[in-house]
Amino acid sequence: MIEESFQTVSQKVALFEPITLAEMESVKLMNRTDAKFLIPLWMLPVVLDDLRPHYRILEVNGHRLSDYETLYFDTDTLQLYHEHQSGRLNRYKIRQRKYVQSNLIFTEVKFKNNKGRTIKTRISQQRLLGEELEENVVKFLTQHTSFNPADLQPILWVDFTRLTLVNRTTAERLTLDLNLTFRNEKNHQSYREVVIAEVKQESLKHSFFLDLMKKYRLREGSISKYCLGIISLYETVKHNRFKLKLDHLRKIITHYDFSSRNHRV
């Protein structure tokens, strides 16, 4: 059933009008507000049908489904994770990301300030993910975070496939992340039944996508891929703040398993 859903998504994606990276320059939204939603994969083809008149889709080198490989960094005590888990404002995420289809690699810092805004900065790099940090990357991390780069270490790989939609009339981007997988040296966990949607705007205002989420009774719920990965791979880590979101995720997966069994009967 999951493979059938992916195939249908690919068919729906092909119907969108494309937009290029150059055309998307005006909606980088490196300083933004955002809202996240969990969408069951089986619903995504219907959602895409509703979105198509209002959004264009990013196409890179002929690809509309773009693969991302991401390596997150943290301290040996998982300080960045625990600051998020405790609800601290003015917090960071630090990662290296490879945009597979365009073969670009960046070190990126996301800073969530006490006004609820996400500020993203990044620097390109030549070395592969996980290799020794380049001198310019060390300088970048020193300038843009409160951490000593020497205290940071690779903690978690996150892989996914992304659709990027751009609103036709307003400065808004919508990312839809599929085939989500977490891994480290010891463990591996996939959540293929779930799509993580994130709408990004200069300031939170009217959005067709937000109206659509209300229509389908899908509630906003901030979920960090990094934090979800830590919870999934580190069994003993504290995660009280994320229990409700984790329960919701498991309900989506259980529904998918139930539907798959009925489909085979």
- Report mean pLDDT, rounded to a whole number: 89
Shape: globular
What is the name of the CATH topology? Hypothetical Protein Pfu-838710-001
Give the N-to-C terminal Cα separation. Answer: 12 Å
Widest beta sheet: strand line-up: 2-7-6-5-4-8-9-11
Query: What is the annotated CATH architecture?
Result: Beta Barrel
Give the uncertain stretches in residue-range form: 260-265
The helix-and-strand class reads alpha+beta
Radius of gyration in whole Å, from Cα? 18 Å
The amount of beta strand, in percent, is 25-35%
Order of helices and strands: HEEHEEHEEEHEEEEHHH
| CATH-defined superfamily | Hypothetical Protein Pfu-838710-001
Number of domains: 1
Largest sheet: 8 strands, antiparallel, barrel
CATH uppermost class = Mainly Beta
